[in-house]
Amino acid sequence: MTNSLPTANNMQRRNFNIQNWDYKCYLCNDESETMEHVFFNCRTSRQIWNHFVRLFGVLFVFPQTPSQNFIQQIICNANAKMNRNWKTLSCSTVWVLWYRQNLIAFQNKAFDVDDVVYTVGFHALKWLKTCEPSFPISFGQWIGNTSIVLLDV
Question: For helices 113-131 and 43-56, what crossing angle results, to 10°?
Answer without folding.
Answer: 50
